[in-house]
Protein 1
Amino acid sequence: MQQALEQLADGDRDVVLLVAGEGLPYDDVALALDIPTGTVASRLNRARRILRAALGSSSTEVLNNG
């Protein structure tokens, strides 16, 4: 999983760590990173796709709701 996370852009990784790692809601992540809430959703969606590809078919539950 660490190698998969390292493939992410810094901003995408920050969102993943705050949402999945810390359990923060999108609004709180947006405030913490000073970005729009829609950007949080966009970055998380992109990160999920990258992580699924990196982890293979066994990753159907990547980052909850995946």
Protein 2
Amino acid sequence: MALTVSLVLFAGITVLVLLRTGYLRLWPALAAALFGFTLASTGVAPAITSAISNVAGWISSLG
């Protein structure tokens, strides 16, 4: 749970910085967010969640 909140917070801050600096425009950001929400409701969501957990576990084992 803590990893999910941290990942969402990090991603949100990253998107906000990209929007503020002009590297990311509002409409493409909204389209990507809509795609993410749509993807989360499909059958591939557990595989994505598992992959993110595996990468986070690998990163935490490095330090």
Protein 3
Amino acid sequence: MEPYDALPSADPFSASTRAFQCLALALTIPEAGELSHHDLEAFLDVAGRDLLRQLFQDHLDLRAIREEAAAAMDSAKVTGADGWPRQHREPGHVRKLACLFGTVTVARLAWRNKGLTNVYPADAALSLPAHRHSMGLRRLAVLEAARSSFDQAGAAIERRCGKVLGKRQAGQLVAAAAVDIDVFYQRKIPLPATAATTLVISVDGKGIVMRPEALRPATLKAHQRKQPALRTRLAPGEKPHRKRMATLAAVYDTDPAPRRPHDVIAPPDGRSERREKRPGPKAKAKWLTGSVIHPPEHTIAAAFDQALARDPEHLRSWVVLVDGARHQLDLIQAEATRREIDLHILIDFVHVTEYVWRAAHCFHPAGTPAAESWVATHLTSILHGQADRVAAEITTQADHAQLTGTKREGVNACVRYLNSHIDHLRYDTALAAGWPIATGVIEGACRHLIADRLDITGARWGLTGAEALLKLRALIDNGDFDTYWAYHLRREHERLYPAPDQHRYQLTA
């Protein structure tokens, strides 16, 4: 649709008034009476958006007129953030602003002085962004890009706002929108909880397909020297070396929910109907974070910062749930030692279950009741805190069965896993205290934050874009986006339009 006529008039909103009258008239003609409801919706969607754009434009023009009139009546000078005055004013300076309704023109006065940069008081009054796209459009771009691909986000924005944003620009806006997230969480005070509430930290990692220049040096070197064994596909066990590991962490509260081993694993002969199964603990006040740029210790430290903000006096029980990766365990223990915090570290029970099932298939065919009964018996013993005895029994049974070679690989892997993590398999203590024993929260976060968006087919990421989207998706999942966006707007205004004495003040989240 062509822009509405905007001839000079005593009424600053005359163009908007004429646009509305034209729109109302278009709905009264006989042809409009023959339109279906969906045709009317489509027409009003475009025409209504252009009417809003004209209202926005008329208001900006009115502000420009008022600024010139006020400057003509007042001989005061304008002082820039550098402390130097600008005494000369020059009208006719314009800039474009792409907003939710289309593109408008902002006219304002420039205050000048020889050898100094121009100062535009109207820009600060409007809190205009540094570049063309409005903060409302940026907010929409972030929300759309965080939930779908940039192509889909661009299409959604075009349907709502017209052609105001390109794919590359959307990526730049998303990266710029995430710059204050770390500081925001450093200053945000979590809600308090009672000393009886368990504090849980969980850490995991997941790979993201990256562009070659964004890979870590060792991965890039392996990617460059890779010689595929097969021409058309990867051979078994072969890796393309295209991923960079992102580390994710979750911190959440949970009320203790004591359980028995048979509440987790049904005994071989089935559960008794006389005793109801006790429910496990439920996560609440969940907080997620992650990074693909920083090393794992950075994310783990951020998780400890969040946990410490929730329990600064160390009055609560701190439980850490991991999948057994030795590197993560060492980093967590080092961070706890540095902060002098007593932790209860538990290995994810689901991972233990997988190893026991693998060992079961060395003795019994897969999918048989005998294998299920064997697994239930040993997992029940592990839940009773007897992982060392289970490891010894499995070893003895394998010796008596004279298992060797590939037939014993599952047994050896299970025994090694149990023995190497024996100190972190105290499920008897965890169940009695009502703690969680599985890493479902952080594994679900890995699927939601990374797999659902960063791992879509054909996506290859640069460091800046992947880091920004990972942090923004975590922010949205935490339920903090609206609060953060208000904080981000204040920070952005402070960066673009600093006052001479701004260093005296600090923003809080």
